[in-house]
Amino acid sequence: MLGTSLLLAAGLLADRVLGEPARYHPLVGFGRAANWLEKSLNVGRSRLLRGAVAWALLVLPLPLLLAWGLAQLPALAAGILSVAVLYFTLGRQSLIEHTRPIADALLQGKLAEARALTARIVSRDLSQADDSAITRAATESLLENGHDAVFGALFWFAVGGAPAALAYRLANTLDAMWGYRNARFERFGKTAARADDVLGYVPSRLTALAYAVAGNTRLALACWRRQAPQWDSPNAGPVMAAGAGALGVQLGGAAVYHGQLEARPELGAGPAPRAGDIRRAAQLMDRAIVLWLLLALPC
């Protein structure tokens, strides 16, 4: 097998050059299968058990099959397949392509367009959002998804190769689909939510540390220590608090979800974010990626 650092760099390069596949993305097919299985099993009693079975059926077979297949291939072929799998688990370029137009629209004074673009990547209600609220939503999404769609996959690839990265990405996708605290998913989606918390625990904190080193380190570490425990998600808290501190801006705060105003803790410190801070967040993520690659060089 080729060196881990070379494979990581090749996967990131493929993601940057090719971007997200416009058609036939494997995760789209996976999502359809997950929707079908959820509708079939999320009924009647024992929904907690049914959710665990559904999670295992969706997440475990493909990585195990991939691990077996890689073991049968020559080193070069196994390396190429591993890079291809890593490419499909990464979403760095997609994050850039979704958030850059938001910053552009805001800088051009196109508020309605910025609202519509931001609504595609966040679940909060932005129908009455001003420039600051839109910028805050886009920046938070970029920082958090930097972990979910980039650093988490890189971490698990470094730990266990393409099968581990694939397992992480499938589990993360199921958490995004099923990990809600509502009547439909409170029990059925509990395994998906807890599995994502476990798999993301270490990489989320390494992501937060990389954000801190790549930005205002002292402020990022202080915000992480003080604010992350107040956030509902054990993994998003450190990532977003450290990221906001690294940028020196104020994120978090109240937001409207499903017609209800939700009082969220504040993250970071400094002024409210402006349109240019979306680009700064992307640059922070890229500097953190470089740090990770440098640390992976001995591997």
TrEMBL record:
Belongs to the CobD/CbiB family. Keywords: Cell membrane, Cobalamin biosynthesis, Membrane, Transmembrane, Transmembrane helix. This is Cobalamin biosynthesis protein CobD. Pathway: Cofactor biosynthesis; adenosylcobalamin biosynthesis. HAMAP family: CobD_CbiB. Converts cobyric acid to cobinamide by the addition of aminopropanol on the F carboxylic group. It is found in: Cell membrane. It holds the Pfam family CobD_Cbib.
